[in-house]
Amino acid sequence: MQPRLEKRGAEADIYLVEWSGRQAVSKVRTPKPYRHEELDATIRKQRTVHEANFMSAAKAAGVMTPFVHFVDPVNAEIIMEFVEGENVRDTMTPDLCYEMGCYAAMLHASNIIHGDLTTSNFITNKKLVLLDFGLSYYSERVEDMATDIRLIKEVFTSAHIAVKKAFPRFVEGYASVAGRKRTEKILENVKEIEQRGRYARVT
Amino acid sequence: MLCLGVESTAHTFGCSIVDSTGKVLSDERDLYKAPEGSGIHPREASRHHMEVSTGLFRQSLQSAGVSMKDVGIVGYSAGPGLGPCLRVGAVVARTVAGFNKKPLVPVNHALGHLELGAMLTGASDPLVLLVSGGHTMILAFSHGRWRVFGETLDITAGQLLDQFGRALGFASPCGGRIEQLAVQSAGKYLQLPYIVKGNDVSFSGLLTAAIRLASGRAQVADTCYSLQETAFAMLAEAVERALSFTGKKEMMIVGGVAANKRLAQMLEAACSRQGAKLFVCPLKFAGDNGAQIAWTAIQEYQTTKKHVKMEKSFVQQSWRLDTVDVSWR
Q1: For this structure, is A116 an active site residue?
Q2: Chain A interface with B: residues with Cβ < 8 Å
Q3: Domain topology for A86-196
Q4: Is the CATH number of domain B125-285 3.30.420.40?
Q5: CATH class of B2-113+287-323
Q6: pLDDT tens for residues B241-263?
Q7: d(CA B140, CA B243)
Q8: Complex prediction ipTM
Q9: Distance from C-alpha of A28 to C-alpha of A14, rounded to nearest angstrom
Q10: Do B2-113+287-323 and B125-285 share a fold?
Q11: Percent of chain B with pLDDT over 70
């Protein structure tokens, strides 16, 4: 099967390929023409390695991620399992928000910060699958977990403003895993980050 | 109908007359210049604004060839910005509106940047990068408001450049001087922290690291070059992410930092990767000006007739763009 360009994302180009007779996805972080060469090479290599590592680590935390077949840090390429399903960005519902909340809490329970928690990184089929771990890192700081949550809150209030109760449902899902007390502590920190923002009203 | 717009959020005091088709009949402004090595002193800036306000107001009528009788409404920038500076603009607007019995329309300064930029470039439904001393935000219009898709988590790109420049002894705004120095560099890249969190960016660590580099052995030109390369690549990446997420086919850049050629070049490359057309706000209107206030006020007034009573004409130092209802889009 000839590789076929499936999607040109912001981060990488996605090709449909074949791996051991099965359909697979090749994610190549192509050089960005606008970034300085040295800077670009460092970023692409680092994110590729991180992504592969954290896709596996997330599985141990109970979060569904694609299976990694092959990693090539030099060419910044990962070949992974092809996941069938729809992008959550296009099929947002409050129930999916609940599930995304559960996933976030499961990652955080293992001290994994996703770093790019947005609806377009979730694929929904029978189960939810989380993608794009290029910006992931380990941390036990509440601040870093709050950063993850603030990001998806920003996505809810911009791209999905028409979906009612998106963030409250997400928080419910999060609390169902992390517990109410822990969730409140993190939400407190989310508020703090928001108030650090430009021209935010301090309440 | 004609509108007088008064702008005074930061270092610029501006008065402008704009008509309801968007024609800018006059655009007068004067900039407060900070002494070398320092930024805008709010008190000094407001004193400057007071001193130039009368002359600029008269001049704006004169160059438009109109008198206050021809003007239908008065718009003023009510925030966000520096309190003392905002108050000068508000006082001028109140006085003129009160004396001539014209409706007074408060305008969000950031909204002014976006609306004037969209009118001048002809972009109809763009993703916007608003990048100035006060803002670094990625926005798109949806459900009656400009929504924030990404922004800085701490300081703005303008503050990054200004504070770095001031540490080297330049006077704000420093962006132009840093750009000139960066061009002189042989393209030697010095490693600096690159922080992108989803669609958001963070510049504070970059600022500290760049100042440390500059006060060490590194060449000033190389540091300026590396600072620009890092900061602008972060912005370009955040923009590319937002473009890919929203699927917008138009991208517009407005605000003072939009004057930087290297930034425009990087955004051009990011846009072409995502198949989007880039609209750059004309240099003359990229920075703060009265026309952005007048044009926004006139649109607001024509659609909603919204205006404020004299005693309710406040200014707000903190006033986020994503809290402003826009009914004419």
Answers
A1: yes
A2: 8-11, 32-40, 43, 89, 115-118, 120, 135, 147, 151, 154-155, 157-159, 161-162, 193, 196-201
A3: Transferase(Phosphotransferase); domain 1 (1.10.510)
A4: yes
A5: alpha beta
A6: 999 999 999 999 999 999 999 99
A7: 10
A8: 0.94
A9: 7
A10: yes
A11: 100
Alpha-carbon distance of B39 to B170, in angstroms, equals 9
pLDDT surpassing 70 at residue A203: no
Q: What are phi and psi of B248, to 5 degrees?
A: -70, 145
* Disruptive mutation site among B156, B191, B195, B197 for chain A (greatest number of A CBs within 10 Å): B197
User: Which spans in B101-219 are helix H?
Assistant: 109-121, 157-167, 175-184, 204-215
What pLDDT shows up at residue B97? 97
The domain spans of chain B are 2-113+287-323, 125-285
Of A13, A72, A95, A116, the active-site residue reads: A116
> B149 vs A158: CB contact, 8 Å cut-off?
yes
Interface of B with A in 252-281 (CB under 8 A): 265-267, 269-270, 273-274
Report the predicted TM-score, pTM, of the whole model to 2 decimal places. Answer: 0.95
A chain contacts of residue B267, beta-carbon cutoff 8 Å: 34
pLDDT per residue as tens digits for the range B137-158: 999 999 999 999 999 999 999 9
For the stretch B176-196, pLDDT in tens is 999 999 999 999 999 999 999
> A-chain residues within 8 Å CB-CB of B140?
158
Mutate to test the interface with B, among A29, A35, A50 (most CBs of B within 10 A): A35
- Please calculate the CA angle B277-B282-B284 and round it to the nearest 5 degrees: 165
Chain B 184-223, CB below 8 Å of chain A: which residues?
Answer: 189, 191, 194, 196-200
Identify the CATH number of the domain defined by range A4-81. Answer: 3.30.200.20
Please determine whether the domains at A4-81 and A86-196 fall in the same fold group of CATH.
Answer: no
Q: Which residues contact B279 (CB under 8 A, 6 or more apart)?
A: B117, B121, B122, B123, B126, B250, B251, B252, B253
